[in-house]
Amino acid sequence: MTTQQHTQASEARAADSGAQASSRFKDRISANRNEQPIDHERVDLLATKAITALTDIIEEEQVSYDEYNALKAWLIKVGEDGEWPLFLDVWLEHAVEEVATSHRDGSKGTIEGPYYVEDAPEHQWNGEMPMRDDEPGTPFQFKSKVTAVDGTPLSGAKLEMWHADEYGLYSQFAPGIPEWNLRATFLANEDGEFDISTIRPAPYQIPTEGACGQLIAAAGWHAWRPAHIHVKVSAPGYELLTAQLYFPGDEHNDDDIASAVKPELMLDPQPAEDGEGEQVQYDFVLDPER
Ligand code: MBD
Ligand code: FE
For residue 278, how far is its CA from the centre of ligand 2 (angstroms)? Predict the structure, then answer.
């Protein structure tokens, strides 16, 4: 395949990713439904505040019927395109994540995003991310140690990792990629360590063909997220850490469309000591469960 053919194929397939995230999310929610009673006071408070914030904008900005109808049509399209998870995770999740983790003393986290899949197959602490025989990309060796805030190594730690391929596509959300490609759960050694072989992911452009892309084009924004590796780090008795790790020098580290970059999440890749590619050490500190 030429580069141009590959770009065209990637664009066609990226279009499905936003919609895939919708059906995935619905499955996950119905599987985990724990019949919580409705907190009517809280719904009243939050719904009233949300409606008031919007009506304030309408008055302040003198919003017209044409603008109101454009919004209506666009909201309908977000649903039709299956892009609500994409929209919410790109523009709102970062604020929810800050609220959820502000009490922590351990490692900083960031948003999960729309492309996590639970229960990725398990591998040993020094395993390789599942990848195709001809998987393109720079080899990347990821070393890590997981400790508690008091410094105790956590031998029971699990590290789930998922990331895009060299073309910015995620398995299970873009067709034609093996199911668990570049997704895995690693189990720590007795010192809480990991030594994982993978490839460097490419920067990610959110699908441009759907409602979210339409908004981005209409507003004159860009659709890029910097290259990133997603992780979930856990250990029995400790709070789950959800994070993304970034690469210095990426063009979009300072203007991530999803506002999910933090300085603490920047990797420091070095040339690999043995073999080709790069290696990095990045450690995690977990907070005890409250
Ligand atoms: C991604 O890969 C991602 O991580 C987020 C947060 C939003 C869209 C695509
Ligand atoms: Fe991502």
Answer: 21
